[in-house]
Amino acid sequence: RKKLTILNINRMYKHGEPISMMTAQDYPSGLMVDRSGIDICLVGDSLAMVALGYDSTNPLTVDEMLHHCRAVARGSKSPFLIADLPSGSYEVSPEEAVRTSLRLVKEGNMEAVKLEGGKEMAGTIRRIASVGIPVMAHIGLTPQRQSALGGFRVQGKTAKQAMNLVEDALAVQEAGAFAVLLEAMPAQIGDYITQRLSIPTIGIGAGPMCSGQVLVLNDAMGIFDRFVPKFTKQYANLNQVMTSALEQYHQDVKTKQFPSPENTYPIDQAQLDKFWN
Ligand code: KIV
Ligand code: NA
User: Fold this and answer.
1) 83 — phi, psi (to 5°)?
2) Pseudo-torsion of CA 24, 28, 34, 39, nearest 10°?
3) Could you give the domains of the chain?
4) What enzyme class is recorded for this protein (predicted)?
5) How far is CA 42 from the centre of its chain?
6) Which residue from 23, 25, 89 has its CB within 8 A of the most atoms of ligand 1, so it is best to mutate?
7) Whose CA is closest to atom 1 on ligand 1?
């Protein structure tokens, strides 16, 4: 497979070809995202919840993120690689945001970063973009700010909220974001923002008219099923597949059905005779 760059992403957008994006959090998932032909691989901070078992994305540290980025990058060679800036690693100052972004690129082998926020992050987006790191902005439902939002809730349901989302989208575009992720908003608002912008929108729960779509791998594969957001489509139920396979293994061990001869190493009879004597 050919390596995708930001130029390929921009070209898809120009030609109206929908952009596919999926998260990954380790070497095997990165490899599978690569082999499936998906355009963008995101090391999302959702891995805090779906891979590490935290209750929210907020506890994730930059070092933890880097550990996962490196693993994904070893498996995902063709997709364009984006990493989330973990909460607490970019909000305090644009300088700190640049520093963290550089770490994700240099130590995490990522190509671009994503951060949560709209107009209030414009200066930060501009600074990161100015050092040559492409920035994707993330507006609407911003999970790192769930306390302020009152939980994982759909955004832009009132005219005023929807207008704020449009302003956010225009502000991050103006600041130099190369794309905007739209999370959990009515389809009409996702459509309107997509039409207003001249950069791609990537939707998750933002309707079918976005320039592209993203899902969280462990949700879409049915690995993480503690709760399933409305916007998730379960393309597989790997939790069920793996749990019943593990039950089978457990039973096989208990009943000595495993290992069978084909999983067992032979030895020459002559060597065995010597061994016994
Ligand atoms: O962390 C994540 O997985 C995300 C999703 C919205 C794709 O940001
Ligand atoms: Na995220």
Assistant:
1) -120, 145
2) -10
3) 6-236 (3.20.20.60), 241-276 (no CATH)
4) transferase
5) 4
6) 23
7) 44
Q: Which amino acid is at 198?
A: S
The helix (run of H) or strand (run of E) holding residue 201 is strand 201-204
What is the per-residue DSSP string for 24-37? --SHHHHHHHHHTT
Q: What percent of the chain stands above pLDDT 90? A: 98
| Residue for token pair 């010597």 | 274
The residue whose C-alpha atom lies closest to atom 4 belonging to ligand 1 is 44
Residues paired with residue 138 on neighbouring β-strands, in sequence order: 116, 181
ipTM: 0.99
**25 backbone φψ class: left, alpha, beta (φ>0; ψ -120 to 50):** alpha
Residue 84 has pLDDT above 90, yes or no: yes
Q: Quick one: which atom of ligand 1 is closest to the CA of 46?
A: 1
- Under a CB-based contact definition with an 8 Å cutoff, are residues 43 and 81 in contact? yes
Phi-psi bin for 75: left (phi > 0), alpha (psi -120 to 50), beta?
A: alpha
Return the ligand number nearest the Cα of 85: 2
Q: How high does pLDDT run on average in the chain?
A: 97
- What is the structure's pLDDT at 228? 84
- Could you say which DSSP state residue 118 is in? S
How does pLDDT run across 54-63, given as a tens digit for each residue?
Answer: 999 999 999 9
